[in-house]
Amino acid sequence: MASSDIIKLLPDSVANQIAAGEVIQRPASVIKELVENAIDAGATDISIIIKDAGRTLIQVVDNGSGMSPTDARMAFERHATSKISAADDLYTLHTMGFRGEALASIAAVAQIELRTMRRGDTVGSRITIAASKVEGQEACTCVPGTNLMVKNLFAYLPARRKFLKKDSVELSHIIHEFERLTLVNTNVDFTLIHNDVTLHRLLHGSLRRRIGELFGKSMERQIIPISTETSIVRLSGYVGLPQFARRRTAHQYLFVNGRNMRHPYFHKAVMSCFEQLIAPDMQPSYFINFEVAPDRIDVNIHPQKHEIKFEDEQGIWQILVAAIKEALGKTNATGAIDFNVDDAPEIPTFNPDRQASATVEIDEAYNPFESGIGIPSPDAASVIEDFMPAKSRQVDWDTLAGNFRRERSASLEEVRSALNIMEQSRPAVRQLGLDELPDNDSPSAADQNSSQTPGSYITIANRYIATPVRDGLMLIDRHRAHIRVLYERIMSCIADGPIATQRMIFPETITLSAADDIVLASICDSLARLGFDVSPLGDATWAINGMPSALSAASPAETLTDIIAKVAATGELPDSELFASIASAMARTAAVNANSHLTDTETDMLVADLFKTSMPNFTPDGQAIVVTIGIDEIGHLIN
Question: Beta-carbon neighbour count of residue 573 at 10 Å?
């Protein structure tokens, strides 16, 4: 006999818990949903009260429109919403919420108490819910608006509660979400209270003012406005000046129609405007709002509504780039020529007795608009001299190709054109006696390194170290190599005991955001073991009194902000992993960068130290350090 039917509908409580797994990930997710509901209800004053980083209590109080007793109960039903009524409404959204899942999801994993009253009513309604079940509803006295309390988050989903991080980390996430919400709703007053301590009290005002209230008044002087209006998008907001770019903790926010969004494509557009203005490892701050017709975007991509698709992405990219470049150009942000660098233009000494040339030679055949890089046919010997390493007269063609290609960012046509010139110059190379190749027989990277003679490495753009090996051309990322070397030294020192502290003659002060202030307070003891001496001064300001002796040359404030960002990203860790995380951030901050000059001897020592480490091929966080360009690939480029 055939078995009975096995497919069944899930109970509402189970379905709501499944939905909660997508919508409610941590306390910050609850705050996002409740605040967006308050915004949709027309609130102009919102207070957020939390205890124990949201584990025990999340309370959101607003002065919005409030709800009737029937609406108050219906609001917790799955897919019950006042925001839309038909599928077409999804493409004309003017509200933050529309799915009707948030309150049902929250009620499935926590205990709820709601008090609400509409303006004009004389009595309100109180509802209590636990695990999706309404325990009671009654009339109550309350002020107009809504007061919703979420108690014991994830009490009915213990697996999720177990994976919450420690309070300092969860509070940091809450503050970051609070920042996003307040930046996009500058017309609303906000208050944030944690464990009876007021962390923020923000009054409505301009975006610039709110940026200063959240990130410090100095931030207002570090940003410039952008503004443009076209038929497809209206852009407004601010971008940071290049000189204030940061290696970590840059403030980067994109909004569309009053909604926060993540958009890697537009982020790349912003970064392209700063390519020639900041170092490759630096990040500019930006706060940019996009206003587009609701029917030209799709926000129904992900339950958390952070991902948004645009109908006119390519057009908006071009408008965004033009607006930012115009703003930077107006402030002369492109900077001046640095005459102290090695490749600065050579300016002849003024000689008043020298007679000026009466004629100027013009190349009439030159056309700057022709395609290609237009490399002229040079004298063969001069080509070789341009690409020869300073201290070595033995180099193979593969190394010359790698040296010319620089950071491997040139186009294929540019590389081929340059390599053809070098190929034509082979006779001159033989005449100069430069075609003798060093013998590299060992396949291992360490042995390849050991076969090199001092000065045989080529440094490319102060970023990469290149050397010929048996299988082709080996490239070493100089910055990452130094990170690996410093990381293992720091970890070795930690194993031997507390690291020595070098006291600073003049302590340096640093003012942090509220989120970073909480993280720093939680890791003070660990920092002390690593050689840091920091003390709180109040109002999220700290004094840096001492640094690890091994990092005496590094910027104290930059090192500390890098460590805070690393810890905030990794969350709660055992002491051993926390030390490793902090050591990684310390090494990254202190490692050489593109502005650092190393002598040939220092380069040799760095490579030698790298191949003495336990994992020379990767940084502590898994980034590649060494790569080999094979003979076949080089041959393909030349041909």
Answer: 17
